[in-house]
Amino acid sequence: MALLVCSALISGSEVAFFSLDDNDLKNLEEEKTKAGNRIMDLLKTPRYLLATILISNNFVNIAIVILSYFLLQGILSEGTIASWSSTLLEAVPALERITSTETVIYLLDLFITTGVATFILVLFGEVAPKVYANLNRVQLAKFMALPLMVLRRLFKWFSSVLVNGVGLVERRLEHRAKSTMSKEAIDEAINLTLSEQANSEQEVDILRSIVQFGNVPVKHIMCSRVDIIAVPIEMVYQELLNIIRDSGYSRIPVYEGDLDRVTGILYAKDLIGHLQEGSEFEWQQLIRTPVMFVPEAKKIDDLLREFQTKRTHMAIVVDEYGGSAGLVTLEDIMEEIIGDIRDEFDDEIEVEYRQIDEHTYEFEGKTLINDFCRVIGVDTTTFDTMRGESDSLAGMILQITGKFPRKNDVIRLGKYKFKVTGMSKRRIEYIRVSLPEK
């Protein structure tokens, strides 16, 4: 009986402590009694309080079940159990066909010695105390505050192991929940949120770009090597000025020997005070070093943080062999989220294409796949399973065919038809794309 009372008090204290509302806690704090102070102290570490209650309750319940088993074994003789088993077999003759008499005696003995104890424990040690605690939470919490403080100190080591173990599992589950949230689910959430808003297409595109931002490698947004405007370090000053005027770029890479040996970046603004200098002017003294180099596989979210840390706007992209594969700027990263950024100096359209009709476009072969997707209005991941390691339309065609196509060759990728309309000896110049009809 004493163990049952202990089980009831400990079980009820769980409901009593964790059902205290703000008003109860405020009243306890204002009372400034020892019991109130103990309650406030216990609730400062709710996980350790809960662990103490659960550990204590389980120890008491196990003791009740074990003690009840031995008590019932002493009260009920083997003859009594055997007599009840015989009566059961006579009442249910079908039992004799599916089991033996010994098995029936064993099962009946197990049910009586454990089932009865479990029923009493659940009713008087769990259900009834929690109902009472819900109605008298403050009184029971005050009564159990001192015993629980003693038990907390007694089971301190055990509680620490339990709380730390639960915390580890909780962190694992949180990490798994975050990692299993698919892009499709996020896209669906974006659609549900903005579908009822008028003119929300731009917001949807920006949100989707943010979702995919961390998975885009630098290689997919960089300016390829063949399109980089760079100057050799030995160039004459007047020729340099002409290149800067014609290109319109504010930063120009400077190389020594070839583009694989970029030594610095020249800022156009640094030349403003030297526009009247002659060809003999040593402009090399204005080159800024060191140069930032990044691998092709680097994710653009990491690159953005690195740009912010190093306070720079440009980096040279290198391939696996250390050669210059391209160039990437802060503007390229921002355009991946919000689309093309145009200013008063952008006279030409960055993505060269021609729209023939509603479903047909013609692009340069060097057009980046991401830019192509934006022009035709599809998700930038549409061709991820087909593009392989390629970044441009021409690269994707070569990846699929495995050889140089001939002019007017047609390649089908899913619902899209690509026709080679311009070829040179070394590269695909123009590609005509036919979109599926809506």
Rg over C-alpha atoms, rounded to the nearest angstrom: 38 Å
What count of helical segments does DSSP give?
A: 17
The residue ranges in which pLDDT falls below 50 over 5 or more consecutive positions are none
**Content of β-strand:** 5-15%
Q: Give the overall pLDDT as a whole number.
A: 80
Query: Largest sheet at a glance?
Result: 5 strands, antiparallel
Helix content: 40-55%
Question: What would you note in describing this structure?
Answer:
By secondary structure, this protein is of the alpha+beta class. It folds into three domains: 2-176, no CATH class; 211-338, CBS-domain, CATH 3.10.580.10; 353-434, 2-Layer Sandwich (Uridine Diphospho-n-acetylenolpyruvylglucosamine Reductase, domain 3), CATH 3.30.465. It has 17 helices and twelve strands. The protein has helices spanning 2-18, 22-31, 34-43, 46-75, 78-91, 94-98, 101-135, 137-154, 156-179, 183-194, 201-212, 237-247, 300-310, 330-338, 369-376, 384-387, 393-401; strands at residues 223-224, 231-232, 251-255, 262-267, 293-295, 314-318, 324-329, 353-357, 360-364, 410-413, 416-423, 428-434. A five-stranded antiparallel beta sheet has the order 8-9-12-11-10, with helices on one face. It has a four-stranded mixed beta sheet with strand order 1-7-6-5. α1 (2-18) packs across α7 (101-135), α3 (34-43) packs across α8 (137-154) and α5 packs across α7. The longest helix has 35 residues, at 101-135. The chain is elongated. The mean pLDDT is 80.
